[in-house]
Amino acid sequence: MGHVLLAPDKFKGSLTAAEVVHQLTAGLRRAVPGIEVRGFPVADGGDGTLDAAVSAGFRRIPVSVAGPTGAPVRTAFGYADGVAVVELADACGLRRLPDGAPDPRHASSRGAGQVIRAALEYGCAELVLGLGGSASTDGGAGLLGALGVRLLDGRGAELPPGGAALRHLHRVDVTGLHPAVRRTRFVVAGDVDNPLLGPTGAAAVYGPQKGAGADDVAVLEAGLRRWAGLAEAAVREAELLPVPDLLPGPVTAPDLPPAPAARVGPLHGWPGAGAAGGVGFAALGFLGARFRPGIAYLLDLLGFAEAVAGADLVVTGEGSLDAQSLRGKAPVGVAGAAARAGVPVVAVAGQVDVGPGRLRDAGIRAAYPLTDLEPDPAACLDRAAELVAATAARVAADWLDPAAPSRR
After folding, report:
1. Strand partners of residue 317
2. Does pTM surpass 0.85?
């Protein structure tokens, strides 16, 4: 028998991806003593991206930065062979809000910029920025401020943090932009293709998820609109790199295809500009970043092909396996990569809201919801660890027993 590869995403609200791996491992080994199990926690660019990189062999380099409301937080970036992995959510994401209290008008992306600055000064040649879980809607202004860009009001004073302050922006000064930006290749790993502005933009679609009411959304939209005009003018004047798809491919994944969506017209309308409260806009315009589908890119970067080689089975999963999962989230990305290696994939999830036919079409041969063992959702969250371990025994019976129907 070959090995079993465990490649789950986090179970949001209950278990990290590494904790899911731990419980699956315990359950499988109880069911099949002596079985070889290998862990490969995954993420799609949001929460857990840094941990996934470290699990795959990247070194964790600690950094102290400003959280979304300015309070200091301890985070890190991953580093290996000249490549740095930065997770925005771990620096200034929603889970870093003090006591979980949102601050939609004033929350800032500055902490992510401080991590990027630390990685640049560490000497990385390529930087992968995982987007997702952002607490701010500041268009990436805070991130750029940490990299030396100055946002000035009509009196020449620097703006305070947050998207609301952008309404008073008068000038964008890029002369202090960190010099390493121009000699570093940036890749953004994420799956959001929204533009920066309008009814499908950062404020309208994602602002309410960050605590923004209708009035807040209007204020943030006005700030982003002013920021977009002045920032795009500054990018053109400074002759930065605003057309990332014309740049050479990323050194870590040369075989990835170019981004599918055409990028024409104003930068604020490009797909992905609205990602992470507009951090995508800043990454595209000021950092010359290339956008890549989060899970596909990270699986390639972290060496999934090598990990899955020789496996008998891959077990993936996430908290809720639903229609949104089928649009390219972690379990489907894992299933696609495993299919290329000819290895069957099953999923363990807190709950499953799609039928077996659609799952099979996505490459997932079977799904095992924790709600089969504990139908009460609240109790399922509380007991997630023990339920994952118990569910692993069901997977073993169905897929690792030579007499099981799935093995015939």
Report:
1. 348
2. yes
